[in-house]
Design goal:
The protein is 36% helix and 17% strand. The chain has 6 helices and 6 strands, in the order H-E-H-E-E-H-E-H-E-E-H-H.
C-alpha cells in the first residue's frame, strides 16, 4: 500500500495519552517522559476526547521554565497551543504527510468526524509502517528544516 491509498487510521498509533486544559504542567511533563513523546494532545475532558489543543516540550521550556512559573500550579490551558493541525481518520497518509511538512510538525493527531482524537501519526510511524523510504526521508527533512526559530 502506498501513501496515496493508505489512510491515516491504518498507520496511526491508536489511543494516545492525552491531558485536559486543567492538568498541571508538571503532570504533562511526566506523561511526556513516560510515553517518550514531545507533545501531548489536549482534550475537553476525560470523557469527551474532542481535541482543543496541544502542549509540547517546547511550550514547557519557553512558557513555564524560562518564565519561572511553578509547574505544579500552572495549568496546560495557560501554555498550550489552541490551533492544532489534525487529520481525519479517512484522509490519505500522503495528505497527513503534506500537512506535517507544511506546518513543520513531527506528530499529527488523527481525529474522527466529531473532532475526537483517536490516534497520532508520528514521523516514526511513517518511517516504519510504509514501504516508501525516499518519500519518508523527504518529509522528515522538510519537517526538520529550520523555520527561523532557534
Amino acid at each position: 500500500m502506498n501513501t496515496q491509498t493508505m489512510t491515516c487510521k491504518v498507520i496511526m498509533t491508536p489511543n494516545p495519552q492525552c491531558c485536559t486544559p486543567q492538568t498541571a504542567v508538571q503532570d504533562v511533563a511526566q506523561m511526556m517522559k513516560s510515553v517518550d513523546a514531545g507533545s501531548i494532545p489536549v482534550v475537553e475532558s476525560e470523557s469527551n476526547r474532542r481535541i482543543v489543543g496541544i502542549v509540547t516540550d517546547r511550550d514547557l521550556a519557553l512558557k513555564v521554565v524560562s518564565e519561572g512559573r511553578d509547574p505544579n500550579t500552572t495549568r496546560v490551558q495557560d501554555v498550550m497551543s489552541a490551533d492544532v493541525v489534525t487529520c481525519n481518520e479517512r484522509d490519505s497518509l500522503e495528505s497527513a504527510m503534506k500537512s506535517m511538512s507544511d506546518y513543520q510538525i513531527r506528530r499529527i493527531p488523527v481525529v474522527n468526524d466529531r473532532k475526537e482524537i483517536i490516534g497520532v501519526i508520528a514521523q516514526a510511524d511513517v518511517a516504519t509502517r510504509t514501504e516508501q523510504p525516499m518519500q519518508t526521508a523527504e518529509v522528515v527533512e522538510e519537517i526538520s528544516q529550520s523555520n527561523g526559530e532557534i
